[in-house]
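Usage

Read records sequentially. Each one opens with the input sequence:
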Amino acid sequence: MSNPGILYRIADNNRKLFIQNCIQFDAPRLEAAVYPEGLTVESDLPYAEGTPLPSPIGPDSAAEGNPLCCSDRTLDIYTPENAKPGEIFLLIHGGAFVYGCKELDKDFGMHLALKSGITVANINYRLLPGTDMQGEITDIFLAVSFLCEKGFSTFHTVGDSAGGYLCLLTAILMNSKDARTQCGITDFNYDITCKSTSPICGDHRESRLQFAGIYFDPDKKLPSFIFDLADAAEMFGCPPVVLTTGDQDMMLSQNELLEKRLRKAGIPVEYYCAESTEDRPMHHVYAIAHPTWPEGIKTIDMTIANANR
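and closes with the structure output:
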């Protein structure tokens, strides 16, 4: 990866601080998690061969050895009884593209599968800056290819935070060969449809000069729409969208802006901003952390309704 000097160093310091803060929040949450029953769970299925490349910035004290920063290319599948054949949610975890793992979204994904009657695939992917945005997109489509080989052809995408960005971009790319080609996905030949996309507290705009967008496209090989997915939706279309956020979500303004842009483009969109109560703050990715809160349940219900349009 090329090094743009002081901007890169500032971004990388922000990245390391972000990872440290996330680990402090997520580690106790996962230790206390109690997962629902009633699903067939297949864990840690490899969807691509080979091991991830090491980060071009060298050893990473912020992430090295921590299981919550996982760049392996594996996925879990949660299958409810009498699951709809051939139909699946693709669940993409968040973490500012530089942090995270599928376990962060496991509780939410299992509740989504149980309530919807639709299978859920919960994926890992390589993290920045160990790859670039094209690498993350490539991993997602390798996972999609793996699922196609298992007989799935109707997809719904859902994700939180950076995973919200990735789920929206993936939905656009699934339905547009032209968009895939521009993003370097040229060998995907499966006949699939993405029927819905449901970003949770997601973002859609990144700066090429700041964390985390500084890592997106260092070689300038991708189209400019990766820095504003509203542009991509306007150019290529998009399946129906559910946007969910909270009144204490740091991505609130991004969600408000994206809703306006999508509506102006004529794309069906439903919007929900959860309001905090005295004992339930509607912070960033509240539905992932608390899928059994009333607001988390509503997010799941809206995601299912979007899939069943």
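Summary fields computed downstream for this record:
- Confidence is low (pLDDT under 50) at residues 54-59.
- The chain is about 35% helix and 15% strand.
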